[in-house]
Amino acid sequence: MANSDFTTSFHTTATPQQAYDTICNVAAWWCPEFSGKAQNEGDAFSVRFGDLHYSVQQLTEVLPGRRIVWEVTESNLTFLSQPDEWTGSRIQFDISAHDGNTIIHFTHLGLRPGIECYDACSGAWGQYIAYSLISMLNGGKGQPGFPPAGPLAK
């Protein structure tokens, strides 16, 4: 189990294309301190969470309505002893239609139990997905920024 990447799946009534479009709107659900583009293969963007987290992601695979993969090309998570721990990891969203719903399978490849960031980062991803991304997908508003919405924010 120590080699298992952080992953979670959820469903929404949004169409696969709506899900794709929402995920690409990074500033609206993950981080408002966003710079760059997150629409097409080759695009790159950075996010900053104050002085705690800075990272640059490049879109390495884009299949509209089906899959988005971001490779982390630079990271500086200042709360870690190895601040570049995310560099080289990949963040993947697989999108599929099933029985009138859309299923999104999220995986942060390289975010595994045993690395320093696992507990804090997997918890934060869970919060952003549950309280921001899913809210947007179901017609509500995203809650980007830090701390993430939900129980960890308290």
Structure description:
The protein is 21% helix and 36% strand. The chain is α+β, with helices and mostly antiparallel strands. The protein is built from three helices and seven strands. It is globular, with a radius of gyration of 15 Å. It has one domain (6-146): 2-Layer Sandwich (Alpha-D-Glucose-1,6-Bisphosphate, Chain A, domain 4). It has helices at 16-24, 26-29, 118-137; strands at 6-12, 34-36, 44-49, 53-63, 67-77, 90-98, 101-109. A seven-stranded antiparallel sheet has the order 1-7-6-5-4-3-2. 31% of the residues are buried. Strand 2 and strand 3 form a beta hairpin.
What's the topology here?
Elements lengths: L5 E7 L3 H9 L1 H4 L4 E3 L7 E6 L3 E11 L3 E11 L12 E9 L2 E9 L8 H20 L17
CATH topology annotation: Alpha-D-Glucose-1,6-Bisphosphate, Chain A, domain 4
What is the helix/strand order? Answer: EHHEEEEEEH
Q: Characterize the largest beta sheet: strand count, sense, and whether it forms a barrel.
A: 7 strands, antiparallel
Molecular shape? globular
Question: How many whole angstroms does the radius of gyration measure?
Answer: 15 Å
Mean pLDDT: 94
Query: Briefly, what CATH class?
Result: Alpha Beta
CATH superfamily grouping? START domain
**Any guess at the CATH architecture?**
2-Layer Sandwich
Give the tally of structural domains.
1
Helical content stands at 10-25%
**Order of adjacent strands in the largest pleated sheet:** 1-7-6-5-4-3-2
Helix- and strand-based class? alpha+beta
Enumerate the spans where pLDDT stays under 50 for 5 or more consecutive residues.
none
Task: Report strand %.
Answer: 35-45%
Counting DSSP E segments of at least 2 residues, the number of strands comes to 7
